[in-house]
Design a protein that fits this description.
disordered C terminus, mainly alpha, 0% strand
Length: 131
């Protein structure tokens, strides 16, 4: 009886972990879709929600743990902005680093080359309009 109970507990723990991973993947996909929508609608930077802007800024930042990720960040920045990226002073959200990684890995294959250059903004720094 104890063995059966232990297996059930173990299976329940695995199920909880699997559900948590699935929820996190869904969160990543949701943020990725919202960022794509904001880019495709050319939403001015000051009108972006803070989390989405922070994620995009983190995804194109070369301030990452290894050269491979830094290269992906530079490639994404070039893909989006074709050499003229905006300058943001946006704090990164530690709890969303995995979402930054997902955006860094997937976004360039999902949006047209230079899409970020189409965005007109009242200010290059979205925080300066918060006044």
């Amino acid at each position: 009886m104890r063995l059966v109970l232990a297996m059930t507990t173990s299976e329940a723990a695995k199920e909880r972990r699997r559900n948590a991973v699935e929820r996190r993947l869904e969160l990543q996909a949701d943020f990725l879709k919202r960022i794509i929508d904001l880019l495709e609608t050319s939403t001015p930077w000051p009108h972006w929600p803070f989390e989405e802007l922070s994620i995009l800024a983190g995804a194109i930042s070369a301030d990452v743990p290894n050269e491979f990720e830094a290269r992906k960040a530079r490639d994404l920045k070039w893909h989006l902005f074709r050499g003229s990226p905006p300058v943001w002073s946006v704090a990164r959200i530690d709890d969303l680093k995995d979402v930054e990684d997902r955006v860094r890995a997937d976004l360039s294959g999902l949006v047209p080359l230079g899409i970020g250059r189409r965005i007109k903004s009242e200010s290059a720094d979205p925080l300066s309009s918060a006044g």
